[in-house]
Design a protein that fits this description.
The complex is a heterodimer of chains A (212) and B (183). Chain A is mainly α. Chain A is built from eight helices and no strands. Chain A has one domain. Classes of the chains: A mainly alpha (212), B mainly alpha (183).
Chain lengths: 212, 183
């Protein structure tokens, strides 16, 4: 097994997965998503972390778009499936910086809904552009998602706690999408994942027209 | 999560200075991120992991001595920015960088961490025990992270290291931007 340069392997390969390994992975992924029970509003570092952790979880439009990125990565295969989790948080943080610095961006919420529609359709139609195009598309959408989160940061009880919670939650949702993407290795899994992609685009459309 | 509830930079009651020193870098989020990043950097290198960990430990010792001598930094912003730079390097696969850069990179990291770990209002004896505890904690924690990374052999484990670095990058980027905006 080549361990020296996993992202730039000349013969990229996806791990061979059986249903015995895929199903537990998907179950664990949903377990990671299970929201924690917060009986009390926290303050200080704990409050900041909790607020930041729950912020991406609280918006269904955020969740479905980030899950769609993971699913799309699964369709794109190597190295996209592993490159996106490295690049996505950093680009999203750049959007967060724009929000923190109050640099105006137009129609943030609209574009977040559009991102869910577009990414969902990319999954549904198994759109496979060159890696650079996929990275730019997801990066652009990540900026708007990050902007929405970053705008809340100055009001957080603890900015660094909020940042840690926000980034960890975002990463876990992203991993959820990648894990669900492993379903493509199962019989009929591709159809299932494509169906999830279309469902995500419907959710995005519902947000876009203000129904959700 | 309960770790974050403990007030940073305040002595914890009912435990002595030495244990306060041990817990201090683990309870201050910026310092914990620094330790993790130093460990990721050292562990990601193909060779001389122990040497690079020792360089970070030595630099932290120098920084702690400077803090005992009264050297202070006004805000943790320089530390956060430097952690950001190192985390970007790890996410971009720092083992491809020139050896002298990855060897010297932990030096400012350790010094800034040490200076930012100021213990105020302690007796000389208490200060010495606090600094000793802090140094032990920083050294062992970063070394364990480096060893963990060094043990990574599967491709997905190498990716996990880079994902962790990208998370640290994202956190530091936003915190640095906020500190900058509040100036």
């Amino acid at each position: 097994m080549n361990t020296s340069n996993p992202l730039q392997s000349s013969t990229p390969s996806f791990p061979e997965l059986s249903h015995r390994s895929v199903i537990p992975a998907v179950i664990v992924a949903f377990g990671l998503y299970a929201p924690a029970a917060f009986a009390h509003d926290g303050s200080g570092m704990a409050g900041g972390f909790a607020t930041g952790f729950m912020h991406p979880m609280a918006g269904l439009d955020h969740i479905v778009a980030m899950v769609a990125v993971g699913l799309w990565g699964a369709f794109l295969g190597m190295p996209a499936i592993w490159l996106l989790p490295v690049v996505f948080p950093m680009v999203m943080a750049l959007g967060g910086v724009l929000g923190i610095l109050n640099i105006p961006l137009m129609a943030v919420e609209t574009l977040i809904a559009v991102s869910a529609i577009a990414l969902g359709l990319c999954v549904g139609f198994r759109f496979r552009p060159p890696l650079a195009v996929a990275a730019v598309v997801t990066g652009l959408f990540a900026i708007f998602h990050g902007y929405a989160h970053g705008a809340e940061l100055p009001n957080a009880a603890s900015p660094i706690g909020y940042s840690i919670g926000f980034v960890v939650a975002t990463g876990l949702i992203h991993l959820l999408g990648i894990s669900v993407g492993f379903l493509t290795k199962l019989k009929r899994g591709t159809e299932l994942v494509r169906g999830i992609g279309f469902a995500i685009s419907v959710v995005g459309a519902l947000f876009l027209f203000g129904i959700l | 999560m309960c770790l974050f509830a403990v007030p940073a930079h305040l002595p914890i009651e009912n435990i002595n200075e030495f244990y306060n020193g041990i817990l201090h870098p683990l309870l201050v989020p910026a310092h914990l991120l620094t330790i993790i990043t130093a460990g990721l950097l050292a562990g990601q290198q193909p060779s001389h992991t122990l040497l690079r960990s020792r360089i970070f430990m030595g630099a932290a010792a120098v920084g702690l001595i400077l803090s005992a001598l009264g050297v202070r930094i006004a805000t943790p912003l320089p530390l956060i920015v430097y952690v950001l730079v190192i985390a970007i390097a790890v996410a971009a696969r720092s083992e491809r960088f020139p050896v002298f850069i990855v060897t010297l990179a932990p030096v400012p990291l350790g010094i800034l961490l040490g200076i930012d770990s100021a213990f105020d209002g302690l007796t000389t004896k208490g200060l010495v025990w606090s600094l000793l505890g802090c140094l032990l904690s920083v050294s062992f924690s970063s070394f364990y992270v480096a060893l963990l990374v060094k043990k990574a052999s599967r491709p997905w484990q190498h990716i996990a290291v880079r994902v962790a670095a990208s998370w640290v990058t994202a956190i530091c980027l936003m915190v640095a931007a906020l500190q900058f905006a509040q100036r």
